[in-house]
Amino acid sequence: MIHHSAIIHPSAVIGNNVEIGPYSIIEENSKIGSASKVGSHVIIGSNTILGKNNCISHGAIIGSDPQDKGYRGEEGYLIIGDNNTVREYVTICKGSSKGDHFTRVGNNNFIMNYAHLAHDVMMGDHNVIVNKVQIGGHVRIDDYITIGGGSVVHQLCSIGSFAMIGAGSKVSQDIVPYSLADGPRSYIYGINIVGLKRNGFSNDEINTIKKINAILFRQKRSLSQSIEAIHNLPYSEFKEHTLNFLNRSTRGLVRMKR
């Protein structure tokens, strides 16, 4: 199940029932979890840890050095969870000393052809990253997010859970949870109602999210006034989730198109 032309460093740890295709390279201090598949011409860089049942397709480079002009060869790491699909020619960089030295990808993500995740990215679970998406350094991507093909996410941005970003978008500020964003200069166009319904949200839950969205984007309030108004809503996990996101936002919010 490991092709004879594959090059595997003696310090690499390979789990049970792992497949490694022709001409792939597994570098030092890396780990590949059980039942994972590594295609041909793949590079798994040093200090890269893959969990179980991952599929890494032809030509992907997973765990490369940071693409940062300040990088000076310091140790960096990439940790990827379980059940991820990484398609052809995807590149994912290790962490840098400008972060905590770690890039992290969670579980059950689907990352399509030619996508790039830069150094110190923190990605959660159940995300879909479509073809040619380019994600800058230190970006935080929560859970159940779809980023449309050809989109670009500026470094240091955060994207909240259950958001949907349309194809060809430029994201240069933070996108709040549950929202729908689109455009060459991204704007919010409401909530991701189709995505919420597909993920089993009830009508009452969607209405609660609409109220939060209206406070943030459809009423003439400052951000601090919006946060206070959301605080005054009845308790819900959606209220708490949104407030937590707003309190850690550092780049300002993508706003609604007027």
UniProtKB/TrEMBL annotation:
Q: Gene behind this chain?
A: lpxA
Q: Which GO terms describe its molecular function?
A: acyl-[acyl-carrier-protein]-UDP-N-acetylglucosamine O-acyltransferase activity
Q: Which GO terms describe its cellular component?
A: membrane
Extract the SUPFAM superfamilies matched here.
Trimeric LpxA-like enzymes
- Species of origin: Paenibacillus xylanilyticus
Give the UniProt keywords, A-Z: Acyltransferase, Cytoplasm, Lipid A biosynthesis, Lipid biosynthesis, Lipid metabolism, Repeat, Transferase
Q: Which Pfam families does the record associate with it?
A: Acetyltransf_11, Hexapep
Presence of keyword Transferase? yes
Domain UDP N-acetylglucosamine O-acyltransferase C-terminal positions: 174-254
Please give the name of this protein.
Acyl-ACP--UDP-N-acetylglucosamine O-acyltransferase
EC class of this enzyme? transferase
Q: Where is the signal peptide?
A: none
GO BP terms: namely: lipid A biosynthetic process
